[in-house]
Structure formats: C-alpha cells, structure tokens
Input
Amino acid sequence: MFRFLKEVVAGSGAGIKDLPYNVGEPYPSAWGSWTHCRGTSKDDGSMVSIFSLSGSNSQDGHLAAGRNGVKRLRTVRHPNILSFLHSTEAEIFDGSTTKHTIYIVTEPVTPLSEKIKELGLEGTQRDEYFAWGLHQISKAVSFLNNDGKLVHGNVCLASVVVTQTLDWKLHAFDVLSEFNGNNEGSNSPVLQFEWLVGSQYKPMELLKSDWAAIRKSPPWAIDSWGLGCLIYELFSGSKLAKTEELRNTAFIPKSLLPDYQRLLSSTPSRRLNLSKLIDNSEYFHNKLVETIQFMEILNLKDSVEKDSFFRKLPNLAEQLPRQIVLKKLLPLLSSALEFGSASAPALTALFKMGSWLSAEDFRAKVLPTIVKLFASSDRAIRVGLLQHIDQFGESLSAQIVDEQIFPHVATGFSDTSAFLRELSLKSMLVLAPKLSQRTISGSLLKYLSKLQVDEEPAIRTNTTILIGNIASYLNEGTRKRVLINAFTVRALRDNFAPARAAGIMALSATSSYYDMMEIATRILPNIVVLAIDPDGDVRTKAFQAVDQFLLLAKQDHEKLVAGDTSETAGTGMPLIPGNAGLLGWAMSSLTLKGKASENAPLGFANANTSQISATSNANSVVDTGNVVPIHVSSGTDNSDQPRPPSPTSTDGGWGELENGLLHEDHDSDKDGWDDIDSVEEQKPPPLASIQAAQRRPVVQPKPAASSLRPKTTLKPSKAEDDDLWGAVAAPAPKTASRSLNVKSASSQDDDDLWGSIAAPPPKITTRPLNPKTTMASDDSDPWAAIAAPPPTTKARPLSLGRGRGVKPYPAKLGAQRIDWTSSPGL
Output
C-alpha cells in the first residue's frame, strides 16, 4: 500500500508521463553518461532530440552536474549553442529500485561523429566542411569565454552535435562554470564538476588542479586547449586516448597547423584567443565559409554586391559539397528570396539547386517559395519565374495553379513590357493543362483574344500558336466558337507573314476538331486565297494545307459513296511534313534550359527575323523533334506588299473588348470570340436538292439568235431559284488582292443545265456594271446592254439669290460699303 501511494505521488509531478514527447531509438554515442535519443512531439509529430541521464538517487553527483547543465542550457542562447525546448525530472520505479532520470528536449540533432560517417566527405570538400564547423564552434566558445566570462571545460568531439541544416552546435554544459579571476590567491575549484572531464582532455594546470594558476590565466585558456583536442579528433578520425597523441600533427592541414600549435601551448597565457582565431586564421578563408557568411549577412550588402554574388553562385554551388548546398545554402537562399533581401539573379541559383533534389523534396522545400514569389511586384522576379517555368511547372498542382499562380501571371498579359507579355503568353503552354474550364473560358481566352491584336507581331504569332497548342484542353463548345474564328478571321489576315503561316499550321494541327461542312465552307476558302500570298513560305504552307483538307474531303466522299452515314469530322490524320512544326516554335526560348535567363530577351517574330522554327502535331501534343523554319524574306519590304487589313483594326468584325477584360468574370462564358461572325455564312442547302440538280437530263443548248442584241436580265424562273450551288458557294475571304466577282448572271438559257453551276468569268474591273442600267436599256438598241452608265454627278442648282445664275454673296465680317444705284426716272 505504501509503495502504491509513493508511485501515485511521484507520478503526479512532471514525470515521464507528463513529457509531451515520444522517446525513440537512441544514437550509439553521446557525451558523458547521457543517452541521446531520437524523439517526436505528441502535438504535431515534429522531430526532436531527447537527452536522458539516470542516477540511483537524487543526490548522485552525475545528476547534480546534469541539473547544472540543464540550467545553463536553458539560460545561454547563441546561434551556435544547442537550442533548448523542454526539460523534466522523473522518478521511475523498476521493481524494488527507484531510478531518477533527467530529460532534456532540444532541436533535432545528430552526434558529430555519426554525421561525419554519414556524409562521407573526402579531400577538399571535407576540409571545407570541417573549416565551417570549427568556425561555428569557435564562435560559440568565444562567446562563452569573452562575452559571458564562462568556461565550458570539456570541448571535444563528443560535445558537438549537428543540426538538420548541417550546422555544428555546442552542448554538454554539465561542467560549465563562471570564471572568477579576481581572487587569484584562492585555491577553491573553478570548475565544480571537473572530475567529469577525461584526463586526456585536461591541460596540465587542470590536471594538477592548480586553481591559482588557472585564475591567473585568461578565461579562454582551458577551452582553447579543448578546441585543439577537437581539431585532432576531427582530422585523425579517432577518439583521443591520451594527451601525448596531440603531438602527432601529420593529420593537421598546413594552413591550420600554426594555430593548432598555439591552441595547445604549454603556457596558458600564450594560448590563442578564439576570437583572434576566427578573424585571422587562414584556414577559415575558403569558398564554403565565405559563401555561407555572405548569405548570413545578406541584409547588410548593397545591391551591386548582391547581384555580383548571385550571378556567381550557380557555378560556385557546383564546387561545394552537395549535401551542404542542399541542406544549408538552399534554405538560406529560399528565405532570402521570400523576405526580399535577395535579388532576381538568385532565382537561377535557386532552380539549379532545386534540380538536385528529389521530386518530393522539391515540392516540400522549393515550391512553397516559388508560389509566394509569383505575388511579388518586382518585375525582374516575375520575368525570372516565367523564364524557368518549364523547370517547376510539372510539380505544381492544378489547384495551386488555378487559385494562386494564374491570377498573378494574368497581370503580365496587359503589362506595358512586350517581353513580359510574351513570357506570360508562353507560360500558358505549361500552366493551361492545369487550369479549370471555368478559368480557361472565362479568363484565359479573353486575354488571348486581346493578344491576337497586339501591336507586336511576334506576340500575335505566338498567340495563334498557343491557341493551337491548348485546343485539346478546350471543351467542344468552346472549340467550335473559338478555333476557326481565331485562325481565319485574324491569323490568316494578319499583315505579318509568319503570323499567317502560323494560322495555316494551327488549322492543320487542329484538323481533327472540324466537321466536313466547316472544312468546305469556312476553312478551305480562306486558305486557298493564300495560294497567291506575297510570301513564299505562306504559299507553300497554304498548298500543303489545301492538300491535307482536300484529302479529308476525299475520304469523306468515299465514306458517303460506300454508304457510311456516320458523322464525318476531321479524322485526325498526321500532318503533312511541311506543317509539322507548330508547337516548338512558340517555346523555342524555353526549350533551351538553363540559357533563357542568361541571354537577352528573345524576339521570336519581327520584320527582321530571318528564321522562325515551329513544331506541332494533329492532337496539339508538343513535339520538339521536328522543327521547320519559317523564312521571312528580309529583302522584300513587307509594307509594300498587298496585305489584308491590320489585325489591330476593329473593322474585322471582332468588335471592341470591354473595359473589364483584365478582371475575371466567372459569371460569363464569353471569351472574346463570341462577337465574331463567320465570313458571310450562308445556310447550306439540303443534300437532296444538290443530288436532284445533278440528276437533271443534259439537253443540247439552242442555237443563238441572229440578232446582235444579247438577252437582257429577266426575272429568274423557278428552276433557277433552285440553283443550289449559288447558295452553297462561300464568298471569297477578304484579302489584299482584288476579289473576284462571284455574282453569276441570271440571264442564261433555262435549258442550259451547266449554266446554273458554271463559275462566272473574272471581271477586270472591281466595279460591276449597274444592273439597273441593264434593265432599263432599250430593246431596239443592241448596244444598250454594254453602254457606259450615265454620269452620277448632278448639275449645280441655280442660285437662290437675286438674278439668274448669279452666285449668292458670300458672308463677310465687318462693316461694308454698299453702292446703291438709283433707278432711271427717279
């Protein structure tokens, strides 16, 4: 009964049951009598380290020293001293014995000896990492000695641990004491728990317990000796067994040897102060130490120093230990970018370091920083992100792209910088597959509609290519409304030859989305006109596209003949080799990974461009294997060539974009192409009527009358009202060349069956004859039908002033003299 009550009383305090952490597996080594275990938080599962020290009774000397270490660790704070989180002391009953245990919870760390084995560094990289670690421990010990007037008393390999970012930190504060040098004659111990220190780590005065000599020596004398022991254990790779081994300097680097010897001086007053070691040691002057130091004081550097440093960092990172770069430099760089202390050139180093991570680590360590940077107002940061979007775009989730990234990228579509508009446009090739249909239809297509009339010809060309690329991500209704209008009404009428070529290739690449009626009435008539385009490359692609669509029409005809009544849309046949070059052209700068950010902004299409490459396929899948150049003739002045009206004009049936273009309107599905009507679309006739017209019997035409008078235009008969080809024929699209007059004469013989479907001969003049004049001609005058129309000008009306034919007096300002003449006889 008494034992039960004792357990209840002991367990009611801050015992192990109340420890808010789970104790895990122990590490094989730890300082002194402590046990170093892995651990996790019960609240959030975060990693921690748990140190435990047990004794048979509460008055045990080890427990007393452990309590001193807990108190010191709780109160001393420094970046290179182990961070304290929690501590408790518990009584654990094991059968008939009671065990007192102290627990210290700290940030997650690993013993230095274990971390060195894990990293496996060799040669220069090992020396650079050791230099960085010794630099950190020297700063921690210097802080204790010079600023805190404290003596650690047991600096060695076992008293150093390594964090997850590979920083070295000092712990094992059980022996830590204040240094009191005022009473030099006193022989009382300076270090109360010096008996915990192994004899091999003690300097001669401490080994002899000469406290008077210790009080006369500087505060750093004991810890400088300990740092020398740490250096020996690091480079020898073995634990120090006896003091005499310190004389073996074969393992010590030459640049560190003079400082090593001064640290281990037999005279305490001549031992090297660690603050001077930090400032003056040649060993600490290496690329790793200098790089990390620059990153840690980045806020104190000016913009010129930052830009110079970050431009060198990508190449420098390749020379540094890879694990240190990923675990130390990368977090520093991400933090600097998030808080604005790093400039845009740092993005190149960030993406290069990120490429060395696994996909899972990249999403956890780099992507959160990138998503935050998209909201930056720094234009240089936005340009850098868009230039490297192909390196991280695949790792972004659809929800993040749709909700957090696209709203910021969309601001670039209307930016005053043409280069930023173009980068924003080309980034959609990576981001569009992750956008929702609501965002594509309600927002993205509105921006693309505006960019297709951009003042920059390269942007207009790339917009056409992008629409062809993302066609597979549009729903069927949107494709019907957008594709043909975007490619024919705007692209094929652009005054920039590569834009017209891109329109032809986009139509070919998306041929699987059009039915045969659209191909016959809306696509082929617009492409055939480009067979006489001033640009040779446009003509070549036009002929290839015509062949492709005619082949589709022939396949449809064969299906109809075979009795296949299934819907005959585009078959998605592979493109003609000459047109197999759509998608890669728009992304030509982004496919040069690692070079886009190092080069000047690229202009993909302009009047001086000599060659533009392009890639595509029928299903809008990126294929960079086939690149076909689009040659822009530099010797021909494009401004002198007959071209269609400029796409920037609003006279093409597109209408003005509303002022709310830059704001997403999810309540409306309009995308900027809704106000475009097809070019004089006519209702197609029924197929039965066409077949009936073709089955008419062929009758020989009557001989012409001997009279020279031609037949005048009469009211067409009912049979001629059934002329179905006239209704089917699509008008020629507007081009820069003179359009043919497709109006057929209605005065042909009723019995001439071919007359109803024969194409009229081209007329030389663009102005047709006046039909009214023809109808009003005298039947007796054989020349009346071809006589010139009467002049349209009218005679000037008589003046309404006094006198016939006299012009009225013009109005004059000011006083005037009037000459009144009297009438005779008055």
In short: The mean pLDDT is 75. The first helix runs from residue 2 to 11.
